[in-house]
Specification:
Helix content is 33%, strand content 16%. Helix 6 packs across helix 9. Strands 8-7-6-9-10-11-12 form a seven-stranded parallel beta sheet, with helices on both faces. Strands 2-1-3-4-5-13 form a six-stranded mixed beta sheet. By secondary structure, it is an alpha/beta fold.
């Protein structure tokens, strides 16, 4: 059995910090465990690589005869229909983390390839990152820090675009595991109101616990929010959801945070809205292509006052605590697969019968 893991290179950081489990160097902490099972699975082979682009990449070369593929949302191996058709032995794809949009799920159904992820492994980590992003934007933190690094000191240049979160309207697109926790963590900030946009209404007691009100129309929703945070999965209904038209319905000068998936937001429309001042700020750590190209507009875009950019590489869901959770979850999924046991239902995206 051949197990292929596409992870990212941690280099010296991973050597010095063994808890960086999502790296090529530390192999999710499962390499020795896999080797120890060699007597049960003759020829078990674990190839770990970060080389994932193009026909000559390690990903495509090893995929041809791999039975198990493990990848992460942070350095994803994009598994297309074309690649699945070449992978004759492929039986199961595991996302070490949450979010399997780098896999063509319809093709997985057609080929009866299981797709699983470690549901819930990153929810606390991402929710905390969202709150940090909101405060970073609202308080105009990044330009303030950059001013100090430059050796300057002009408080008025920072304070002119800094606000309190108290008294603001904050809304989440998606009120699931992460969106709910974001609003939960914002309760002590005494926001004016918490709103949520979701296809499903929360039970009344859960709404009351986070002081939230559902708005069913998305244009009406964004028009009421000072802060909008995206906490929804990427699928056909959310791809490009935040586009030029919807951004025109935002409150002028609103802040937007996206730690869900980059492709939910139209890249050029967001950059244009920030440059014009329609958005006062945009923050998050997800990109439509990862790693993001060096010339990606989200790297350098600014609002008219020279701030408003809170972008980071995709790391919100891969803190050391989250890595411990998704590495343990990956091992558990593999154990169930090896032993022929049923998987945890919450982890199943495409089941062994090819059903989503």
């Amino acid at each position: 059995m051949k197990v292929l893991a596409i992870l990212y290179n941690g280099f010296n950081a991973a050597v010095k910090e063994p808890r960086l489990l999502g790296t090529v160097e530390n192999k999710l902490g499962i390499d020795k465990w896999l080797a120890s099972r060699g007597h049960e699975f003759i020829g078990t082979f674990c190839a770990v690589s970060s080389d994932k682009e193009g026909p000559n990449s390690d990903f495509e070369k090893h995929l041809v005869d791999a039975e198990v593929v493990i990848t992460t949302p942070f350095h994803p191996g994009y598994l297309t229909r074309e690649l699945m058709e070449k992978a004759k032995n492929l039986k199961i794809c595991i996302t070490a983390g949450v979010g399997s949009d780098h896999i063509d799920l319809n093709a997985a159904v057609d080929h009866k390839i299981q797709v699983l992820e470690v549901t819930g492994s990153n929810v606390v980590s991402v929710a905390e990152h969202v709150v940090m992003n909101i405060l970073t934007l609202v308080r105009n933190f990044v330009p303030a820090h950059e001013m100090i690094e430059r050796g300057d000191w002009q408080v008025s240049d920072i304070a002119r675009n800094a606000f309190d979160l108290e008294g603001k309207v904050v809304g989440t697109i998606g009120a699931g595991r992460i969106g709910y926790r974001v609003l939960q963590r914002l309760v002590p900030f005494d926001c004016k109101e918490h709103l949520y946009y979701d296809y499903a209404k929360l039970p009344v007691e859960r709404e009351q616990a986070i002081k939230a009100r559902r708005v069913e129309d998305i244009e009406e929703f964004v028009s009421q929010c000072d802060v909008v945070t995206v906490n929804a999965p990427l699928h056909e209904g959310t791809r490009g959801l935040i586009n030029e038209k919807l951004l025109s319905k935002f409150k002028p000068g609103a802040w937007l945070v996206n730690t869900a998936r980059g492709a939910i937001c139209d890249t050029d429309a967001v950059a244009a809205a920030l440059t014009s001042g329609q958005l006062r700020g945009y923050a998050g750590d997800v990109w439509n292509v990862q790693p993001a190209p060096k010339d990606h507009p989200w790297r350098t875009m600014k609002n008219p006052l020279g701030g408003g950019n809170g972008m980071t590489p995709h790391y919100s869901g891969t803190t050391l605590d989250a890595q411990a959770r998704y590495a343990a979850g990956t091992k558990s999924i593999l154990e169930n697969y090896f032993e022929g046991r049923e998987q945890e239902p919450a982890n199943v995206i495409v089941g062994h019968d090819g059903q989503r």
